[in-house]
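Q:
Got a chain?
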Amino acid sequence: MKIGILGAGHIGQALARLLAEAGHDVGISNSRGPDTLRDLAGRLGHGVTAYSSEDAARFGELIIETVPFGHYNDLPTAQMNGKIVIDTANYYPERDGKIDLGGLSESAFMARHLGSARVVKAFNAIASADLESQGDASKALDQRRAILIASDDAEAKAVVSGLIEAIGFVAVDNGDLEQSKNQQPGTPIYGQDATAQQAREVLGL
């Protein structure tokens, strides 16, 4: 699968490497342009390519959005139309400024902003160091660390679940985008190293 990553911070870098190692064709971008990412792309290896944000979104059959939430207006929305978009963001008012979510979860707000994109919340409740080190595809699914996902689109959830399994974790369905509030910072499951069963118990699923 062609995967475009918007944002080259710790989570973006970790996912680029892991997904490229799993055999996917990965492009990575940041706000400063591809020339600033060529060395990073070379270090990540496995054919990871540096793009502009617009070109990464155009390239990807699936897009991973890892930019700070406060910059959501900078996303290349036209190139994301109709595509599965994994939203890894968390809203931190002290970093992002005051944003009126209109009572929505961060991901439901993002989905409304992106229009026809098929948004799936994932990878927001795990530290990048754990993402880098804790995946193990040799383990049975019930022994792997859980990655929580939430979406209003069942087919998109299934696609993202497959990617999660490919990099050595297991997906736990946390419901729709409004339910993604239950995996945000400050919730009991946030940052927890839990199996799927343990995660479901914490979430009351």
The CA atoms of residues 16 and 26 lie 6 Å apart.
